């Protein structure tokens, strides 16, 4: 890839990210939903801990389920909302597909990471979980949040324009999410004093690999799936409309 093409891609990613930020600051849908779900999940799981303390394995499952709920609320809507706003064609025409994907991925990863850490921290505090290995606990929380954001963003990018797109996105995500859930449970279990360190380290590496793989697949496949080449009209010298920053995301 030439330096000019790389500079064009970075500029397009920045434009897509700024557009997502302005849209979120105007509507605040993701922030409100994520915050409400984080509070609800922490309070619900914490209240159940009043009656009985969970084992490390059960607590690991609850932590993983909390991360699933937060990511499912914040991530898929970034792509599927384009269909509801009838801006899919405009999105495809006014920006490079891989840049749009990366901009949305960075946006949803930031939201998933913030709310994911808040949920797991809230559950651990209210449950009074005995965290024996803080690095493994917070590493599992952060990497699982990023891996989920990548998986949901990837499946969301595959489905705009399809009938029953919400169901299709969920169906495509199941094979990607099951391995992530197993790795997160094992890593959380070790952080709470059970399991082996080598097993947890392998799971954390697997979560990091899944996050990177989803980003790479999205960048590689969105130009093909959206029927556009990776080289934008602006890079080839022709004129094209600039991305509308006020268009809803």
Domain module tally: 1
Beta strands, count: 0
Low-confidence stretches: 228-249
Q: What gross morphology would you assign?
A: globular
Instruction: Please give the alpha-carbon distance between the first and last residues.
Output: 29 Å
Give the H and E element order: HHHHHHHHHH
Q: How many helical stretches?
A: 10
Largest sheet: none
**By helix and strand content, what is the structural category?**
mainly alpha
In words, what does this structure look like?
The protein is mainly α. It has one domain. The protein is 78% helix and 0% strand. The protein is built from ten helices and no strands. Helix 2 packs antiparallel against helix 3, helix 3 packs antiparallel against helix 6 (97-127) and helix 6 (97-127) packs antiparallel against helix 9. The longest helix is centred in the middle third of the chain and has 31 residues, at 97-127. The model is unreliable at 228-249 (pLDDT under 50).
Descriptive key words:
249 residues; mainly alpha; 10 helices; 78% helix; globular; disordered C terminus
Write the layout of secondary structure elements.
Layout: H1 3-27, H2 29-48, H3 56-74, H4 77-84, H5 88-93, H6 97-127, H7 134-158, H8 165-191, H9 197-225, H10 233-236
Helix pairs in contact: 1-6, 2-3, 2-6, 3-6, 3-7, 3-8, 6-7, 6-9, 7-8, 7-9, 8-9
Quick rundown:
By secondary structure, this protein is mainly alpha-helical. It contains 10 helices and no strands. It has one domain (3-236).
């Amino acid at each position: 890839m030439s330096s000019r093409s790389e500079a064009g891609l970075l500029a397009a990613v920045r434009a897509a990210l700024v557009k997502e930020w302005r849209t979120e600051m105007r509507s605040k849908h993701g922030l409100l939903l994520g915050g409400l779900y984080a509070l609800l999940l922490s309070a619900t799981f914490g209240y159940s801990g009043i009656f009985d303390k969970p084992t490390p394995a059960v607590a690991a499952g609850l932590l993983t389920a909390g991360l699933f709920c937060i990511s499912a609320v914040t991530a898929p809507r970034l792509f599927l909302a384009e269909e509801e706003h009838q801006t899919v064609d405009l999105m495809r025409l006014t920006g490079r597909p891989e840049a749009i994907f990366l901009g949305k991925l960075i946006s949803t990863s930031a939201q998933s990471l913030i709310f994911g850490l808040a949920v797991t921290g809230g559950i651990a505090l209210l449950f009074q979980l005995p965290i024996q290995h803080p690095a493994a606990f917070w590493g599992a929380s952060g990497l699982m949040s990023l891996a989920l954001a990548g998986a949901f963003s990837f499946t969301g990018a595959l489905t705009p324009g399809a009938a029953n797109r919400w169901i299709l996105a969920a169906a495509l995500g199941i094979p990607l999410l099951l391995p992530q859930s197993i790795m997160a449970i094992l890593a959380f279990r070790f952080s709470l004093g059970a399991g082996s360190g080598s097993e947890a380290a392998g799971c954390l590496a697997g979560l990091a690999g899944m996050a990177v793989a989803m980003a790479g697949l999205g960048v590689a496949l969105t130009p093909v799936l959206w029927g556009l080449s990776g080289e934008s009209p602006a890079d080839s010298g022709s004129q094209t409309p600039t991305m509308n920053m006020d268009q809803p995301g």
